[in-house]
Amino acid sequence: MQHVKRSAAKAMGILRTPPGKAFAPARDRGIYVVWIALVWAGMLAGFLPDLARFEAETPAPPLVLHVHAALYFVWLVCVTLQIAFVELRRPALHRRLGWWLVGLSVALVPLGLVSTMVDMARSSAGTPYEPQFLGLEFQSLIVFSILLGLATQMRRDIAAHRRLMILLAICFLDPGTSRAWGFFSPIHPDGMFGWWLRFFWGNAAMLLAMMGWDIRRHGRVHPALLAGGALITAGEVAAVFLEFSPWWHRVAGGLVMAWGWTG
Predict the structure, then answer these.
(1) Which of 63, 69, 80, 178 has the most CB atoms around it within 10 Å of its CB?
(2) Is the peptide bond before 59 cis (omega within 30 degrees of 0)?
(3) Does 4 fall in a domain?
(4) What does the alpha-carbon distance between residue 85 and residue 77 come to, in Å, rounded to a whole number?
C-alpha cells in the first residue's frame, strides 16, 4: 500500500508546476476564456447544423440520449462558470461549485457509456452500422476519467489544474468538430490519417494552440499539458488502431448484440 502511495505521489510530482515565476496564474489571465470559447465554437459548429436531422430521426431518439445531451450541456456551462469565477476573482464561488462539477463529471462517464451503447444498438438495424466506432467512444471515456482524477488531485496547483480542466473539455470535443468537418470541409481523405483528421482535428488544434501559448508566454510547455496531451493522443491512436482492426469489428458487434437495449 505504501508503495502504491509513493508511486501515485511520484506521478503527481511529474505534473506539478515548475518552481519560479514562469507559470504564475496572472500571466495566463484571460487565455482560459479563449480556450473555453473555442470549445463552445467547435461544439456548436457541429451540433447546430445536425440538430434538425437528430430530431427527425425515426424512431425518435430515446430519453437517455436527451438526458446525456442535457447533462453534457450543463457540465460545459459549469466549466465555463468556473473559468468566469476565476477571472472575476471569486474563489469562494469557484470552490463551492468545484465539487458539484466533480460529481457531474463522474456522472457523465456511466451515462456516456449507456448512451453510446443505446445509440449503437439503435443503428444496428440500419445502415451505416459501424460497431467498431465503440473504440473511439470507449477511449474518450477512459481518458476523461483519468484526466478527471488528475485534475481533482492537482486542484491546489493552479496552473496544472486549469490546464487539465481544459483538457477534460477537449476529451469530448470530437463529436462536435467531426460533425463540423463533415458539414464544412471540402476534403475528406481516406485511410487511417484521413479518419484521424476527420474526428480529431479539433483536439489537435486545441492542443497545439495551448502548447504554442505556453511556449510563447512561459518559454516551455507546462508538464501537466504535456502529460495530458500525450494521454489524449494515445487514446486517439488506440481509436484509430481499433477502427481499422477487423477483430475489433467482430468484438464490438458482439458487444452491441449482447447489449440489445435501444432505450
Answers:
(1) 178
(2) yes
(3) no
(4) 12
